[in-house]
């Protein structure tokens, strides 16, 4: 198989897998820090128990997130060496800063937090988890600075045959970054919240530790609502930005082949025929796309055919005659809709949840609780489809308007080598996923109270009476 | 000094820091399999590095990130050229990181035992592989005019590079043992000191062989005769002193000396390379140097400001963390891992 395709498959595999753990880490770290703050302020044991129990689940997830993250940093050089040569001057800096500013902080303070329960003063220990939480978000900021450059390159000049940084401030004030970063963070908060809500729902259904899980549920519903609503608003801002900066991606995400009428309808469903460049069947909501794109009930959007002609004129001199600038339309269209669908479902669920909470009926609403358990998967699916839409929709570009994906790959790495590494990653990822799910389920079944007892007896030496 | 030269120095410091810090936790991970008599002892040993290993590993991540930012060509050539070696490093580090966290999540001796094997190999392979990497880099690799490296198996794995890998592994093991003697009590403390004492002579021996090898296989002694000679003398002195301190039960000083030994060894590699970052075995003109592989002046300036601002904080809380967990680890207390 073509090395470009294999390198792309590997990138998709490793980043999607990594990004199951990242948002959960960001979301849970924040919520746990919140719980521990409540403990320190209100001095109620239940909040400490909460921080500890959810902290255990957090750590099971965190470990996999950290180790799968190392792959990301290595793989630009391993599989995409021509990309690295071309953009390293701009792209390397945020990655190095991420390591310096965020990774050191996260890893040092997570150590202090895990091992410091009995060794650190309460407030210092609380500060540790907050610094972990802040570290995860700083890390997100810098990696998204790098990603935003790939979507909307700014602050560079082409010199010596490569993109060289000329304006660092432009990189961190990139408009793309400031619609992307809030979207990822709010999405991550919702991920952590729905995880806690789902696990709590499961236990409320089993009528175990009702007080504990009700309180956890309450916090989760609030954060879940803020997170999913925030993700919707920031996502909307991002889409409007997309119309301006990457119109082709937007046209593909909306399945628009020809220029739309003015006002433009929004496509709720379309049977897309990529070969003939048309939609066999469409279900449209009038006015909606104009409103979504421009916040008013007028204005049209360019179709992919028009854009193809425009891009050809502009970019063919760089990348060669006859380049197809239309990304995989069906993938972009459907991943966009699936993301929105799961996101909307999350807003709805958190609203119903908060209503039931207010009425004091949450633990009796078994129907609702039963939905919350599988709804743990919703944010993970929304995150994944969102990234698929963003990255696949940018094709054929790696860096929009500057470098195509086909030109980015390592010229000295063979297909066989990449395939071998894909198999190795797939193997180890499968094992890790299995182990992680097994451990999570185990910890959840154990629950908060037993957990603590077990925890304090495990490590005690049976021959050492003094220690017991 | 040009900024690209400064970044070569900073990257050297990051790798010295990495081998000094992660070096001992690799060593501890390796020695769990033969120094510990049972699982309980292994648990104590793993807990000595519990709060530290993750942050220690970040030195490597930061080193790689700094190479990417400051020398994109170095990064691209090295990571694509050493593809399978990098893959092996990654898989080892993945297994190792998870193993620390998971080893006692289930109270079952077999479960823990499996993860402890992962810790063992995850601690043994990375220093060996990185040792192979740096040694073969010193010797030179088939790098073409377009800066791409196309290495065969024997370019990466040969007598010299394998010896280099083994030597680095031994240095880490010794460093881990002096760390254990510093951080444990009773029998483990005595056993690790005794083993460290036995190992010192082997380490010095393998280092001398490595120097001999390097004399014939590389040009570092032609390029930098006096500095390399001084460094080699200092390395031998450090390990000699470590022997003395171990014998006199000055564990802190012994640990400092084995750390100094590793640091100086890594230093000798970077001194030998400079100003080259990747040596081409095909043609001198194809060498990657700090001048032809670096980022532009603006990018380096930004990075310099950022790095010099953040580094003091990083060092500050790193030292704080080591201060908090300064006590010796034993099973009289709650052990987290």
Automatic annotation (TrEMBL), chain A:
Its EC number is 1.10.3.-. It comes from Thermaerobacillus caldiproteolyticus. GO terms for biological process: aerobic electron transport chain. The keyword Transmembrane helix applies. Keywords: Cell membrane, Electron transport, Heme, Iron, Membrane, Metal-binding, Oxidoreductase, Transmembrane, Transmembrane helix, Transport. It is a multi-pass membrane protein. Belongs to the cytochrome ubiquinol oxidase subunit 1 family. It is found in: Cell membrane. One of its GO terms (cellular component) is cytochrome complex. GO terms for molecular function: electron transfer activity; heme binding; metal ion binding; oxidoreductase activity, acting on diphenols and related substances as donors, oxygen as acceptor. This is Cytochrome d ubiquinol oxidase subunit I. Pfam families: Cyt_bd_oxida_I. It is an enzyme of class 1 (oxidoreductase). The chain crosses the membrane at residues 20-41, 53-71, 91-115, 127-150, 184-205, 217-239, 334-356, 368-389, 418-441.
From TrEMBL, chain B:
It is found in: Cell membrane. It is a multi-pass membrane protein. Its EC number is 1.10.3.-. One of its GO terms (biological process) is aerobic electron transport chain. One of its GO terms (cellular component) is plasma membrane. The chain crosses the membrane at residues 6-36, 57-76, 82-102, 114-138, 158-178, 199-217, 229-246, 258-278, 298-325. Keywords: Cell membrane, Electron transport, Heme, Iron, Membrane, Metal-binding, Oxidoreductase, Transmembrane, Transmembrane helix, Transport. Its main location: membrane. Pfam families: Cyt_bd_oxida_II (PF02322). GO terms for molecular function: electron transfer activity; metal ion binding; oxidoreductase activity, acting on diphenols and related substances as donors, oxygen as acceptor. Belongs to the cytochrome ubiquinol oxidase subunit 2 family. This is Cytochrome d ubiquinol oxidase subunit II. It comes from Thermaerobacillus caldiproteolyticus.
